[in-house]
Specification:
The chain has about 130 residues and is an alpha+beta fold. It is about 20% helix and about 35% strand. The longest helix has 21 residues, at about 1-20. Keywords: Signal.
Length: about 130
C-alpha cells in the first residue's frame, strides 16, 4: 500500500513538472492582457523588477530599449508600468517605462520576456 501511494505521488509530481515546463503565455482576445502560470499582465499594470538570474544579479529576461541590452542588477526593485504587450519571435513581451527612474533615464523603456522573467523570478507581478 505504501508503495502504491508513493508511486501515485511520484507520477503526480512528474506530471506537474512536465506541464509547468510546457506552459506558455496566452494573450486574451483583445491582445491587451497575457496570462502565464496564473499570472495576468495587462496594459497600465505595474510590475516590480526583483533580482536578475545572473550570478551577479544582472537580468537575463529584462532589457532596456533593445533586446540585446540586458539590465544590470542596479535596476532591482524598480517599478515598470506596462504600456504594450507584444509577440516577437514566438515569445511574449511586456514593454513599458520605468516609474521611478529619474533624470536622463526617465524616458527609458524596459522590455520583459514574460515567460523567462516569471519562471526565473525576475519580476513580481502582484504588487
Amino acid at each position: 500500500m505504501k508503495k502504491l501511494i508513493l508511486l501515485v505521488i511520484l507520477i503526480t509530481g512528474i506530471n506537474t513538472l512536465v506541464s509547468a515546463q510546457t506552459a506558455s503565455p496566452v494573450f486574451n482576445a483583445n491582445k491587451d492582457a497575457v496570462t502565464y502560470l496564473g499570472h495576468k499582465l495587462y496594459i497600465n499594470m505595474e510590475v516590480k523588477l526583483l533580482y536578475g538570474a545572473k550570478p551577479d544579479k544582472g537580468f537575463v529576461f529584462a532589457y532596456s530599449n533593445l533586446i540585446n541590452n540586458q539590465l544590470s542588477a542596479g535596476y532591482a526593485n524598480e517599478i515598470v508600468v506596462i504600456k504594450e504587450l507584444k509577440e516577437m519571435n514566438g515569445k511574449c513581451y511586456a514593454s513599458g517605462t520605468f516609474k521611478t527612474v529619474t533624470g536622463l533615464l526617465n524616458s527609458k523603456t524596459c522590455l520583459i520576456d514574460i515567460q523567462g522573467a516569471i519562471d526565473w523570478k525576475e519580476i513580481q507581478v502582484e504588487l
